[in-house]
Task: inverse folding
């Protein structure tokens, strides 16, 4: 049992009893030999779900993004991404190390940008410039506040990318949330992209794992790079079984997490010294500003922790909360009471 109401991230969930049972009963084999039936079943299921030729099970969202970037690019290339994007800011500088590429960050509106911005970011063909090779779109956008990236924007960006010979990768760590909030299927969202990464260990509640989907040729390259970074796992079917269980049972229920986040945002809006725009909350993530309390986000988070509520300070005055499988509506009520108590002081 987690003694805290833990709103730091949707990665803190523990497998449910039903998920543990599916893991316990999984048929397994050596996946480095391609012989784990449960990993193979998960990969086939994912490829079908996204309407792509092939899929690969990998250890994490970071590994999924970074191996995809590596498989799409050559050293020296430019990767166009939104300025707050996870792959650029929160993956340890991996793209510089593993792929030797540089990022071209473009400013978004809560993580969302449009085709004109991409067009303006693409380099002209001149020896002075790097080659613009890849556009990365994060959906939902974590630092943007769980923002759903509109499919219309994506389709127009695809037209520009296709015209200029760029590839497209979606960081869909929380794509499931975007699908549930928008009613757009994973297949529809994936169609304009050459590759998609999607996490099983965030809102879906699995203990470990992410998926990469794309063409057979692309996945073959990602597979080679996964081996290269030591990501080949043996009886990984125990983990893949959790993924299959989650894809079957945990997608639709995310609607509940979105309602929890909205309820929390509405509650926060009525609390002294909290600044939040509740109407901006689209999925399971929310951010609020504590600048008027004259305390830093870290100080507020420490005071909340003392009272059993954990939140994630992400900047000097900014705090993130994420709703998930392991917090209930009554936990949200309790968290709001605790926050109100701490913020009035
Ligand atoms: C949008 C996004 N992409 C990728 C990742 C990386 O996932 P992981 O922590 O599994 O490496 C995260 C993690 O929070 C994320 O929010």
Result:
């Amino acid at each position: 049992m987690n003694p805290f109401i833990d709103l730091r991230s949707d990665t803190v969930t523990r497998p449910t009893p039903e998920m543990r049972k599916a893991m316990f009963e999984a048929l397994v084999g050596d996946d480095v030999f391609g012989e784990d039936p449960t990993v193979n079943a998960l990969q086939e299921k994912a490829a079908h779900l996204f309407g792509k030729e092939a899929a690969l099970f990998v250890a994490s969202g970071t590994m999924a993004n970074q191996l995809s970037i590596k498989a799409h690019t050559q050293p020296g290339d430019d990767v166009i991404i939104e300025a707050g994007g996870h792959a650029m800011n929160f993956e340890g500088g991996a793209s510089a190390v593993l792929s030797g590429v540089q990022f071209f960050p473009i400013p978004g509106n809560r993580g969302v940008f449009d085709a004109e911005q991409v067009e303006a970011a693409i380099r002209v063909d001149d020896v002075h410039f790097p080659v613009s090779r890849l556009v990365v779109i994060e959906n939902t956008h974590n630092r943007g506040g769980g923002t759903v990236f509109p499919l219309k924007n994506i389709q127009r960006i695809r037209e520009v990318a296709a015209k200029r010979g760029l590839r497209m990768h979606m960081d869909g760590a929380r794509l499931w949330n975007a699908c549930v909030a928008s009613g757009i299927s994973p297949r529809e969202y994936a169609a304009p992209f050459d590759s998609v990464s999607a996490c099983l260990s965030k809102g879906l509640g699995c203990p470990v794992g992410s998926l990469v989907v794309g063409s057979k040729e692309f996945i073959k390259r990602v597979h080679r790079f996964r081996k290269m970074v030591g990501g080949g796992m043996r009886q990984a079917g125990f983990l893949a079984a959790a993924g299959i269980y989650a894809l079957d049972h945990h997608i639709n229920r995310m609607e509940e997490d979105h309602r929890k986040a909205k309820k929390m945002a509405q509650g926060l809006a009525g609390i002294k010294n909290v600044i939040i725009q509740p109407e901006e909350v689209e999925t399971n993530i929310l951010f609020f500003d504590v600048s008027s309390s004259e305390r830093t986000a870290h100080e507020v988070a420490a005071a909340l922790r003392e009272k059993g509520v954990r939140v994630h300070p992400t900047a000097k005055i900014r705090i993130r909360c994420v709703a998930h499988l392991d917090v209930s509506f009554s936990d949200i009520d309790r968290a709001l009471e605790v926050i109100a108590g701490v913020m009035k002081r």
In short: The chain has 14 helices and twelve strands.
